[in-house]
């Protein structure tokens, strides 16, 4: 092999080994760095597509992106549908090469927030069917109002099927009242008519119990119409306070709620923020969780005083992947403000969202603050009893004024004596026989 000059730096030990392995004879006056075989040159040069040394980069800080007033990624422009085949937007998923790495606490929290952000952003492939569970202690009105605002800010068609509301909530919303005498086929026809002129829509049903049991609408037909035919999202509300109607002939048939939970891709349970604080206090004291409303079992109690907290709503969400693996998280959603949205564009009722404000419950200052923890500890130190064990100031003064017998005899020269002794002087009336002790 012909010797070749190379500019790469090689350690002396490696150079001696390579020269010996190649069978070269080098004189003492010859520089060893200028004599390297060609195969060594190919070995030292990096191959295309591979890095011998990976550069170390400092982790960059994540910057929260704020949506502009005319952000094209948020607003669904030209939502009208004219012709063509309806297909959902392709979801970009990165292929994993190897085992998944363990996430830190901050990364896991960002991941959970991102899952809920996809639901509120009303992305087509986020969740075809979202089941919302509420009750008298915490209704879903705050959640529904936020879904309406997000849809109007993105220029998405809204179809609202109502049993409990006869008045149209907003001119932008396509309101379909179904509390009167209509059949299930007529309800599906109205939904089809309201969605056929738009590319993207959301359908919200305020009472799935009445729709399935009274109107006899098949859940599979409704989901096939909304999620399959029009590639849209379906939000259904189920009131947990409504008792299921079970017939004797359907004793072995599963409950309707269990079937719906099996079909749902996301399940959101509404909780009161005040109740969650009470549950946290009970957990800190290792006590069973308190019950509220009908679960208390008390006669006449239907709704507790802390129901429907105005500070916000707690959402216990369960997200189900295509593989069937669930992921759960507890979130806090405060009522939206006018400052959360930009100024609306011409022809729109609401502007784009500036910044996402739904967060995890553990990150809420009023839930995880030190003041709340101190209040929990103070409540734990109090004695729980049906009567008052404390003393008033008058009772404390009377207790201090009580003179105990032979108390002064236990002190000598102003200092405390041995203590615990009671000195007793026998009187003439005491009958004591000294001979009894001798027997």
Automatic annotation (TrEMBL):
It is found in: Cytoplasm; Nucleus. GO terms for cellular component: cytosol; elongator holoenzyme complex; nucleus. It holds the Pfam family Elong_Iki1. One of its GO terms (biological process) is tRNA wobble uridine modification. GO terms for molecular function: tRNA binding. This is Elongator complex protein 5. Keywords: Cytoplasm, Nucleus, tRNA processing. The lineage of its organism: Eukaryota, Fungi, Dikarya, Ascomycota, Pezizomycotina. CDD domains: Elp5.
